[in-house]
Amino acid sequence: MTRPGPKILTETLLALTWATARLRLQSFESVMAALPVRSTPGGAIASDDAAQLSRAFKAWDRRLPFRTKCFEQGLAAMAILRRRGHEATLHYGARGAGDALEAHVWVTSGDVPVVGCENTSEFRELARYPAE
After folding, report:
1. Which residues, 6 or more positions from 12, have their beta carbon under 8 angstroms from its beta carbon?
2. Distances in whole angstroms, Cα of residue 1 to Cα of each of 9, 67, 77, 119
3. Is 53 in contact with 7 (CB distance < 8 Å)?
4. What's the distance, Cα to Cα, between the start and end of the chain in Å?
């Protein structure tokens, strides 16, 4: 398993900063509308590239002074994938956690898991963007 290089670390840092700022300042609908439109009809990201993205997001999650959990990472991953011309689906799910409800966001590109996908079988998908 190789470490993410400087280019991908920079790209994920910028996307995380963008997603965090947008989520704090705008509605979810505005944030989703601001995502880049796929410029080319591309397919799914290669699994090796998806693994690099996932590792880069995990690295920043431990180091940044602002929240970079699943929702921020999901929006950032969507922006990166779309900017690169890949398919991207943001999934929103929930599970019961005792008396509480726990939500989770994950992103896939076609059938390729990108970010937040480690425990998705524990969550019931409630919505996805874009909707099928």
Report:
1. 4, 53, 56, 57, 60, 76, 80
2. 16, 26, 20, 20
3. no
4. 34
H helix intervals, 62-106 = 70-83
pLDDT in tens for each of the 132 residues of the chain?
Answer: 678 889 999 999 999 999 999 888 998 788 877 777 665 567 899 999 999 999 999 989 888 888 788 999 999 999 999 889 899 999 999 998 788 999 999 999 999 999 999 999 999 999 998 876
CA–CA dist 27, 112 (Å, integer):
28
* Pairwise CA distance, residues 46 & 48, whole Å: 5
Question: What does the chain come to in residues?
Answer: 132
CA distance to 3, 5, 30, 60, per residue, from 106 (Å): 22, 23, 19, 17
DSSP 5-54: PHHHHHHHHHHHHHHHHHHHHS-HHHHHHTSPPPSS---PPPHHHHHHHH
Rg (alpha carbons) of the chain, rounded to whole number = 14
